[in-house]
Amino acid sequence: MPYNVKEVVGNKPSRFTAGHRMCAGCGAPPTIRMIMRALKPEDHAVVAGATGCMEVSSFIYPYTSWTDSFIHTAFECAGATLSGAEAAYQSMKKQGKIDNTTKFIAFGGDGGTYDIGLQSLSGAMERGHDMVYVCYDNGAYMNTGIQRSSATPKFADTTTSPAGKVIPGKMQSRKDLSKIMAGHHIPYVAQTIGYMNFKDLYEKAEKAIYTEGPAFLNVLAPCPRGWGYPTDMLMQINKLAVETCYWPLYEVIDGKYKINYKPANKLPIEEFLKPQKRFKHMFKPGNEWMIEEFQKEVDARWQDLEEITNKN
């Protein structure tokens, strides 16, 4: 339904509060704050946080930035931990021991989602638990030293895929986790970002939380340390990711794909790459082929998404 984002959303109390230790210019905190605001005020939430930047910066005993219940779980088992909590809740509700409404939300970075935690995430989705898993994708293992992950884009310079004379950065293409999750045939999958007025992020979070059954949100969360952009450029980086179609905004509802935003004038990928130090080697003379190859991959993935959508 139409609404004024500032009035309806901005005036809601934050359930992810100030005082966390996340870096200035990080994309994860505003993303998570908006997702938690999508909860109805009367509903309680149980949040599971996989080990990562967000967990170590927001939940250092005895301090917490979460106003709802929070479970810190290991890198690999946020999906399993939260699905267990959800199963216990369903059992207690069936027995008449509780009658409140509780929602279950997991947060994990790309290391704990694309890689280490993929097995428990896949299991929780396949079993059909009524929960939402949110990946805040910052494209590497940022918490432990900026090592490459399967979410790291091709040619990116990381501490384990250093751009130099031997290799030109990471040599493999980025995993498409959103489509992998859509392949689980769950009720709701969406790719979104903290872009412009956060409307897309809020609406998709609301759908995910209040869709019965498992749901997955993949949210691009830029990292100033790992990506190498000035801290005040977060929103500009988000915008460029969308306008170049590096990070398309779309959702999959009961198996049907829907693109939520098509740039009126699709920007060349250089606009997204140029402000980031992890890609600076791509702009050296003789390395033009890297940019061309990167552009071809972005174009191919965008075309594939359009074709899938048009078939619905």
Describe the structure using short key phrases.
Rossmann fold, 36% helix, alpha/beta, 312 residues, 15% strand
Overview of this structure, please?
There is one protein chain. The protein has twelve helices and eight strands. It has 312 residues and is of the alpha/beta class. It has one domain (5-311): Rossmann fold. An eight-stranded mixed sheet has the order 2-1-3-4-6-5-7-8, with helices on both faces. The model has no long low-confidence stretch (mean pLDDT 95).
Brief overview:
The chain is an alpha/beta fold and 312 residues long. The protein contains twelve helices and eight strands. The longest helix is centred in the last third of the chain and has 24 residues, at 288-311.
CATH class: Alpha Beta
The CATH topology corresponds to Rossmann fold
**Major β-sheet annotation:** 8 strands, mixed
Arithmetic mean pLDDT: 95
The CATH superfamily bears the name Thiamin diphosphate (ThDP)-binding fold, Pyr/PP domains
Counting helices, strands and paired strands, the structural category is: alpha/beta
**Largest beta sheet: strand ordering:** 2-1-3-4-6-5-7-8
| End-to-end Cα distance | 24 Å
Contiguous low-pLDDT stretches (5 residues minimum) are none
* Proportion in helices: 25-40%
Topology:
Layout: H1 5-8, H2 28-37, E1 44-50, H3 53-58, E2 69-73, H4 78-94, E3 102-109, H5 110-115, H6 118-127, E4 132-137, H7 177-182, E5 188-193, H8 199-210, E6 215-220, H9 224-227, H10 234-243, E7 250-253, E8 256-259, H11 270-273, H12 288-311
Parallel strand pairs: 1-2, 1-3, 3-4, 4-6, 5-6
Antiparallel strand pairs: 5-7, 7-8
Helix pairs in contact: 2-8, 4-6
